[in-house]
């Protein structure tokens, strides 16, 4: 990811406020990360690289970072379908670029459970014995992060 010249701390603040106004419990979340798998024909070579055990199909994967205003500020890919979201995050070096952008660690992004929990990357609480507060947090964040799914339909 190039640190986009148009993406400034004031923009991150405005986007965080927009996410919070939509019902997110986080007041500093400015974007959402996810990956999507797009079906391809079975390759004649390297079939195992493109086979997604999760989807049970041959796919190409893409990773996106979407802002609440509908802009996709980062789109990486394609990656072989076998790659896990956490591996794509590592390979894309997106997290390192986010660290450079949010120098004071004030702003975070939010992803699904497939992503690793990091200081600048939040995800839903996991496990079977969640408290009511944890359940409410995950439910509220899930509702506001739905926008990233709509973004994939626009471009891929």
How are the elements arranged and paired?
Blueprint: H1 9-21, E1 29-39, H2 47-50, E2 51-52, E3 57-66, E4 72-80, H3 85-92, H4 94-101, E5 108-110, E6 121-122, H5 132-145, H6 147-155
Parallel strand pairs: 1-5, 5-6
Antiparallel strand pairs: 1-3, 2-3, 3-4
GO molecular function, one term: metal ion binding
Keywords: Metal-binding
Cofactor: a divalent metal cation
**Helix fraction?**
25-40%
Spans of at least 5 consecutive residues with low confidence: none
Shape: globular
User: Number of DSSP helices?
Assistant: 6
Helix-strand topology string? HEHEEEHHEEHH
Give average pLDDT, whole number: 87
Structural class: alpha/beta
**Total number of beta strands:** 6
Report Rg: 16 Å
Strand content: 15-25%
Biggest sheet overview: 6 strands, mixed
Gap between N and C termini: 18 Å
GO molecular function, one term: metal ion binding
Protein name: DDE Tnp4 domain-containing protein
Keywords: Metal-binding
InterPro entries: HARBI1_dom (IPR027806)
Description:
The structure is a single chain. The chain is 36% helix and 24% strand. The protein has 156 residues and is α/β, with parallel strands linked by helices. Strands 1, 2, 3, 4, 5 and 6 form a 6-stranded mixed β-sheet that branches. β3 and β4 (72-80) form a beta hairpin. The protein is globular and about 50 Å long. The relative contact order is 0.19. The mean pLDDT is 87.
């Amino acid at each position: 990811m190039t640190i986009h010249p148009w993406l400034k701390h004031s923009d991150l603040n405005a986007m965080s406020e927009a996410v919070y106004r939509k019902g997110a419990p986080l007041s500093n979340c400015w974007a959402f990360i996810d990956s999507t798998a797009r079906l391809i024909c079975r390759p004649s070579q390297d079939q195992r690289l493109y086979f997604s055990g999760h989807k049970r199909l041959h796919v190409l994967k893409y990773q996106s970072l979407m802002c609440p205003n509908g802009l996709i500020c980062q789109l990486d890919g394609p990656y072989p379908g076998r790659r896990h979201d956490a591996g794509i995050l590592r390979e894309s070096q997106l997290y390192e670029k986010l660290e450079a952008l949010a120098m004071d660690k004030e702003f975070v992004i939010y992803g699904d459970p497939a992503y690793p929990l990091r200081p600048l990357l939040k995800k839903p609480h996991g496990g079977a014995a969640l408290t009511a507060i944890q359940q409410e947090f995950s439910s509220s964040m899930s509702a506001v992060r739905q926008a990233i799914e709509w973004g994939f339909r626009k471009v891929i």
